[in-house]
Amino acid sequence: MSKNRDDSPLPRFQQPRYGVDAPAFPATLGAVGAACCLAAGRWRSGRSATVTAGTVLLASTGIYLHTTLHGKLRIWRRELDQAGLKGDEQLLDLGCGRGAVLIEAARRLPTGHAVGVDLWSGKDQSGNRPEVTLANAAAAGVADRVEVRTADMTALPFADGSFDVVTSALAIHNIPSSEARYRAVDEAMRVLRPGGRLIVADFWPMARKYAAHIGQGTLRGLGPGYWYGGPWLGVTLLHAVKGR
């Protein structure tokens, strides 16, 4: 059985398991929606509005769960297929979590290498631990080309120009201050080689700000498959190329 850096046995999965993004959010959304629907049966006044509110909240919960469990995975598979990877790239995934993007990228790098960095917050993703990411890589058959590191996106432990591609999925916005978020984007650009590509998916206001900060890049909405409850929490893809 594979081991982690502490030499303790890794979990063993038949298939990768990527967990739920920000698990407290859909749990709260669903609980409030259910409570509204139950309360409507007891109240006469405002019953219609309460039922409507409960229905909207439950529908939003369903959309959220579809995105985090299925939609984002399909979209990242499509985006990585369209990225034109040669297969020998050095790739860095910022805020890799349990490896959804990291592992899909590694599948496309038979002679390359994929490194994921994270601070492993369970608040941002359920069951977020490096040994789970490594177990997912083993289940996907790419453990030989995947590495995980505990590292802060705002101070990456890599030399300038270390990577051909830097990816990130719904991670940079978790950094509390705008100054630190921009520092993470700057770090991503620093570790890219000239001509390397930055591919970041984040909520649309954030993605716009990242593009404005670096003064370049194309922005494209990723559609309903990447809605966290509805279009008000839709995700945009930023694609930028580092100048030579």
TrEMBL record:
Name of the featured protein: Class I SAM-dependent methyltransferase
One Pfam family per UniProt: Methyltransf_11
GO molecular function, one term: methyltransferase activity
Keywords in alphabetical order: Methyltransferase, Transferase
InterPro entries from the UniProt entry: Methyltransf_11, SAM-dependent_MTases_sf
Entry keyword Repeat: no
Domain Methyltransferase type: 92-200
Protein source organism: Streptomyces mirabilis
Coiled-coil regions, chain positions: none
CDD domains: AdoMet_MTases
SUPFAM superfamilies assigned to the protein according to its UniProt record, in alphabetical order: S-adenosyl-L-methionine-dependent methyltransferases
GO biological process, one term: methylation
